């Protein structure tokens, strides 16, 4: 039987299989809408259907908010992940067998609902099973798998029959449903539920020893003294600071451009009028760059730190978005020759893909799983995820409206400003959490010096952070 870091990796891999499929859901409209618009399409759609297929997915996430809060607290992280996986499977079966657009609406709604559950329960599970020195890479694996899913849907949907993505998703989800149940539950959750013997057994499997048992037990007792109500999320200083940081980053992810770009990438590339690239292949390359960057960055999260990567990522993204904004602005004014300068948006988009996944697109989910204290973690992450969906909905609606009335350059200028502001926010507001236990992070957020530490430099860092 596997134990220690090997079991942590296996658990993370199987736990994030549904994240892979969520990535397929999230990016589904970009390659599928052109397919559905073909004369031979199995399902006929209108322009209004296109907008609804994007926004109804996000609406499902909002509806899933109270369900998520209930599940992760009442049945645990592991069973919540399995519940999301089952709903996900139903959604893909509906997509694969649909013959009317109304069935696609239902499937997209269910996909958004389960994604809310999954994007809360999976990061919590990963952060709570991982050792401090591996928490960054294991937590980052969530977005690696999401990006794998995006790459899959971009690579499969334009070229193979409509039902094939559903088959791919179904195989992965059934695999997760069959195998994940035998893996350990979070020892933090078990300790919180008063199941100390089960917590010991889970910790022994995951860590190979019980060295952290008393630390976990003490932390859970301490955090449970503050009741996990909505008021505590805002009245307790460390919770309030955590929520402020996560809330801003969830907004920044959307408004630095990634959601409109991913959901409309093929259309954006076509409207550059560039003759330098094939649009379908460029879209695949875009997500491939994101995937490679996600994998590489996840291994540096615990070396370079969350804060440094977030600052650099924001600056890179802001620069690329500014280039895209200027290109579309000049194109609107008729002052750019796309036959000569059409390579510029290609370079900018690819650099943006790498820049986004090296920080803004990876760090927030890691911080969300680290910053909230145990007693409000489910509530804080669920509310943050609900706001993530809400911001995504607002961003898509604003983007579509502005593009229709003003052109591409205006939203890209807005995305540019948000990206640069995020770099400033990260520098002045966000604490560095690399190498710290979940208990030490709470001390850091309270700006209180810990009583003991294994790192001779740790106290100094906690004081000045």
From TrEMBL:
InterPro entries: MFS_dom, MFS_sugar_transport-like, MFS_trans_sf, MFS_Trehalose_Transporter, Sugar/inositol_transpt, Sugar_transporter_CS. Keywords: Cell membrane, Glycoprotein, Membrane, Sugar transport, Transmembrane, Transmembrane helix, Transport. It comes from the Eukaryota. GO terms for cellular component: membrane; plasma membrane. The chain crosses the membrane at residues 53-73, 137-156, 162-183, 242-263, 283-301, 308-330, 342-367, 379-402, 408-430. Its main location: membrane. It holds the Pfam family Sugar_tr. Residues 11-434 form the Major facilitator superfamily (MFS) profile domain. GO terms for molecular function: transmembrane transporter activity. GO terms for biological process: transmembrane transport. It is found in: Cell membrane. It is a multi-pass membrane protein. This is Facilitated trehalose transporter Tret1-2 homolog-like Protein. The gene is AUGUSTUS-3.0.2_12290.
């Amino acid at each position: 039987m596997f134990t220690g870091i090997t079991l942590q990796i296996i658990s993370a891999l199987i736990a994030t299989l549904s994240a892979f499929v969520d990535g397929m859901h999230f990016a589904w409209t970009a390659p599928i809408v052109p397919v559905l618009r073909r004369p031979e399409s199995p399902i006929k759609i209108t322009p209004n259907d296109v907008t609804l297929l994007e926004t109804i997915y996000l609406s499902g996430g909002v509806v899933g908010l109270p369900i998520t809060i209930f599940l992760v607290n009442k049945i645990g992280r592991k069973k919540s992940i399995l519940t999301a996986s089952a709903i996900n499977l139903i959604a893909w079966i509906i997509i694969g067998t649909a013959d009317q657009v109304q069935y696609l609406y239902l499937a997209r709604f269910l996909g958004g609902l389960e994604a809310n559950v999954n994007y809360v329960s999976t990061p919590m599970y990963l952060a709570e099973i991982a050792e401090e020195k591996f928490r960054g890479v294991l937590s980052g694996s969530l977005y690696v798998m999401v990006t794998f899913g995006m790459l899959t849907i971009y690579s499969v949907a334009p070229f193979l029959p409509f039902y094939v993505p559903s088959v791919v998703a179904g195989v992965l989800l059934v695999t997760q449903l069959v195998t994940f149940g035998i893996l350990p539950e979070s020892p933090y959750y078990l300790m919180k539920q008063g199941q100390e013997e089960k917590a010991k057994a889970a910790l022994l499997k995951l860590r190979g020893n019980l060295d952290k048992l008393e630390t976990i037990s003490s932390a859970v007792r301490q955090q449970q003294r503050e009741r996990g109500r909505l008021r505590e999320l805002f009245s307790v200083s460390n919770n309030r600071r955590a929520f402020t940081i996560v809330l801003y980053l969830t907004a920044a992810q959307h408004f630095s451009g990634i959601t409109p770009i991913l959901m409309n990438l093929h259309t954006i590339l076509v409207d550059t009028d560039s003759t330098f690239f094939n649009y379908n292949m460029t879209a695949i390359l875009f997500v491939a760059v994101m995937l490679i960057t996600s994998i590489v960055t996840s291994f540096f999260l615990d070396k370079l730190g969350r804060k440094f990567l977030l600052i650099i990522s924001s600056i890179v993204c802001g620069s690329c978005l500014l280039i895209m904004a200027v290109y579309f602005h000049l194109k609107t004014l008729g002052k750019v020759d796309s036959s000569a300068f059409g390579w510029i948006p290609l370079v900018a988009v690819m650099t943006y893909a790498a820049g986004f996944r090296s920080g803004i697109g990876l760090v927030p989910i890691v911080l969300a799983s680290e910053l909230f204290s145990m007693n409000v973690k489910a509530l804080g992450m669920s509310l943050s995820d609900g706001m993530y969906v809400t911001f995504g909905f607002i961003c898509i609606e604003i983007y579509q409206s502005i593009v229709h009335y003003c052109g591409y350059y205006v939203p890209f200028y807005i995305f540019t400003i948000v990206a640069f502001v995020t770099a400033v926010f990260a520098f002045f507001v966000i604490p560095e959490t690399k190498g710290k236990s979940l208990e030490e992070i709470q001390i850091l957020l309270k700006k209180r010096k810990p009583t003991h530490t294994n790192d001779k430099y740790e106290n100094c860092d906690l004081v000045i952070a």
